[in-house]
Amino acid sequence: MIKAVITNLKQFDRQLTAETNRLYKAAKDAAKIEAYRLRDVLREEIKQGAPGGQKFKPITELARRSRKKYYRNKPPLYTLYKPIRYEVVKNSKYIKDPKHEIHIGIGLGAPEISASWKRIARMQQDGGVFIDKRFKYFSPWQGRVLTGQEAVRDYLLHKSVERKPRRYALRKETRVFKLPPRPIIGPFWNKYQKIALKNIEDNFERKARGEWI
């Protein structure tokens, strides 16, 4: 057995703490760099209508015609790229905590994203069948709260921001509206997970050596 005596423990502990802090910062910077890159990739793929290479199901001709002119020929969910954010958070404020971890998030989960954006994204990702009798909507064109089929008609067909909303014919017997699921985060992360983890490791090694990235 080899025995050793370490003297001047206070200085040793300070040096160890400084090195721990330096490596922690390197790890956090490595994650932040990759999260920023992933955010930009996800934004671009949403604008192309195919996050993770999986194309969104097309919108109906009626929905396309109800869009603003600029967006009329854009892919489904084109404007959803705007609120995409990234965040890097830690689960403990104590660096020496053995359970200390750094987490990255990409998507619409950031606190500053409005509830309406999150609701839209969740509804589009999950899809579903919507019954008009449960639907309530304040119509800026009619200046009152609409319910039932009248509300669905106004919301789906007259939502473009124009002075004179255009009207399209719906059958009077229309009672159910189906929204196909359009997955976003799942396909994207399935494609880029391994790449992202490898990039974070490479970034950490470079930052730990003191390189500028």
Question: What does this protein structure show overall?
Answer:
- This protein is α+β, with helices and mostly antiparallel strands.
- It folds into 2 domains: 1-127 and 183-213, no CATH class; 129-179, no CATH class.
- 42% of the residues lie in helices and 13% in strands.
- It has helices at 9-47, 61-65, 115-126, 148-157, 185-208; strands at 85-90, 102-107, 128-131, 136-139, 144-147, 176-179.
- The strands form 3 sheets. A two-stranded antiparallel sheet has the order 1-2.
- A hairpin with a 4-residue loop joins β4 (136-139) and β5 (144-147).
- It is elongated, with a radius of gyration of 25 Å.
- Mean pLDDT is 77; it is low at 160-169.
Rg calculated over all Cα atoms: 25 Å
Amino- and carboxy-terminal Cα gap: 45 Å
Structural class: alpha+beta
Number of domains: 2
Helix content: 40-55%
Q: Low-confidence segments, ≥5 residues, pLDDT <50? A: 160-169
The number of distinct β-strands equals: 6
The percent range for strand residues is: 5-15%
The biggest beta sheet reads: 2 strands, antiparallel
Shape: elongated
Q: Average pLDDT value?
A: 77
Q: Count every helix, treating DSSP H or I runs of 4 or more residues as helices.
A: 5
Strand order of the largest sheet: 1-2
Secondary-structure element order, N to C: HHEEHEEEHEH
Task: State the gist of this model.
The chain has 213 residues and is α+β, with helices and mostly antiparallel strands. It folds into 2 domains: 1-127 and 183-213, no CATH class; 129-179, no CATH class.
